[in-house]
């Protein structure tokens, strides 16, 4: 009985750490994603695979980032000024050598290069999952905001290198 309670407690902790932050998609979102997966992804797959291979990333990861950023829409624009399928800022594009953010090939190449840079910036001692999680945060909110969140996490007794701790601070 005690062993069962300990096991249930451990399972709850694992779920809280890895599953609760995941938002479920609405039925409309699922239907749209499935349409896009069937109709849009095949037109992008070879290009995504090419740049993913060049920067030693799983192609599915690069495809996921592109979908999250723009829903695989090369004409996507944000009110904040980011553009293209990988939603690069002007400053990031310039840093990467991307001259036309709305050029699908340049945007995918730049996004892959940027994601690889962000992963490589993480401490070598971190587990690859933590490096990736922090790199994805930096891609999404910017490296400056990640650094601010890391400082606040430390001040609140957490580890600045654990996404599990940082994610609580990010909304602030």
Topology, element by element:
Layout (H helix, E strand, L loop, with lengths): L1 H17 L8 H13 L1 H14 L4 H12 L19 H7 L7 H17 L7 H14 L1 H13 L7 H7 L3
Strand content: under 5%
Q: How many runs of DSSP E, i.e. beta strands?
A: 0
Give the SSE string: HHHHHHHHH
Please give the count of helices.
9
Q: Supply Rg.
A: 18 Å
Name the structural class: mainly alpha
Name the poorly predicted regions: none
Average of the residue pLDDT scores? 90
Fraction of residues in helix: 55-70%
Q: What is the chains' assembly state?
A: single chain
Q: Give the terminus-to-terminus CA distance.
A: 41 Å
Characterise the protein shown here.
The protein is about 65% helix and about 0% strand. The protein has about 170 residues and is an all-alpha fold.
Index terms:
172 residues; mainly alpha; 9 helices; 66% helix; 0% strand; globular
Summarize the structure.
With about 170 residues, the chain is mainly α.
């Amino acid at each position: 009985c005690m062993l069962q309670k300990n096991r249930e407690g451990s399972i709850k902790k694992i779920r809280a750490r890895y599953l609760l932050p995941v938002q479920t998609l609405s039925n409309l979102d699922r239907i749209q994603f499935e349409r896009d997966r069937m109709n849009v992804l095949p037109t992008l797959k070879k290009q995504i695979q090419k740049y993913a291979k060049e920067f030693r990333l799983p192609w599915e990861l690069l495809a996921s980032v592109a979908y999250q950023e723009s829903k695989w829409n090369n004409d996507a624009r944000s009110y904040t000024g980011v553009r293209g399928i990988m939603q690069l800022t002007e400053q990031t594009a310039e840093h990467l050598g991307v001259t036309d953010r709305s050029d699908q090939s340049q945007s995918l190449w730049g996004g892959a290069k940027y994601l690889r840079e962000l992963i490589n910036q993480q401490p070598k001692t971190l587990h690859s999952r933590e490096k990736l999680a922090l790199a994805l945060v930096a891609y999404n909110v910017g490296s400056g905001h990640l650094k601010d969140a890391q400082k606040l996490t430390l001040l609140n007794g957490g580890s600045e290198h654990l996404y599990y701790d940082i994610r609580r601070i990010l909304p602030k």
